[in-house]
């Protein structure tokens, strides 16, 4: 026998669906407002984010010093100065060897351009010198026509560099204060919040901090893997400046997408200038293989293990973050996804009913 649809149950189901839809709509609107406010305050939020990432990277050293009876201010000062020294040393390892071979590099660039021109003049391209000259003349004319846009872009670039310097300086000062006063933040926050929030918010904040530290450590390890394997490949092929290129690869790993492209481009260019076309092609193959393994195997595995996220979630988060917010979105996608996971886990624990204990088995009565 068939069943008739109950009108009362259907109306109740529709009312329930409408209520849930309304709640979801309110949450989406509030999320949109929060993101809009975040964008308006980004000039302040971005230095805080960078300072938090730097603090998670340097906190183990500060914690070690504080555990050995260093005053908080002295420990924070020492770690901040040590971090600046490491940054300066890293820049020195990259710049000084390259500057020492600047003449050879310039000559190699000229030879490389000449090799490319000779290769393009042969089959299958068969590009004649007069065609190259005509293309250069056309490029010069277009360059003259767009001189205004170039000036505007240069001014914008100078402003971007200046903003970047201001952000870096502010982030360093914030890192110092986070290292100095960070352990006092959660007790202070607990005293400012009423009722149940005094326990929930500091707990979630501590878990988010641990998650952020796991992200930074995994990213550093991934950068180390890139530097080691690409450096070994460059050494085996016989490319000069192996140490500066390996250091550049490690540093660039902290900048998603653009960092890897820039470090790979520099390595291929050095190989082309000093070793020739075929060695440069081998370097390109090594970089592509290592970066594919890093991006699709090592990084998702390490970050999924340290952050409690599935490897597929890590890949999707990076893709979505890059689509929505470019480089910054790619950089922050994984820690944001992990923090959202922490929040969801806490909310689920709070709203879930406790599992009842199984009934105790009655012991048989002795007769």
UniProtKB/TrEMBL annotation:
PANTHER family: PERMEASE PERM-RELATED, TRANSMEMBRANE PROTEIN. It comes from Actinokineospora bangkokensis. It is a multi-pass membrane protein. It holds the Pfam family AI-2E_transport. This is AI-2E family transporter. GO terms for biological process: transmembrane transport. The chain crosses the membrane at residues 20-38, 44-62, 74-96, 150-179, 220-237, 243-262, 269-291, 311-344. Its main location: membrane. Keywords: Cell membrane, Membrane, Transmembrane, Transmembrane helix, Transport. It is found in: Cell membrane. InterPro entries: AI-2E-like. GO terms for cellular component: plasma membrane. It comes from the Bacteria. Signal peptide: none annotated. The keyword Repressor does not apply. The keyword DNA repair does not apply. Belongs to the autoinducer-2 exporter (AI-2E) (TC 2.A.86) family.
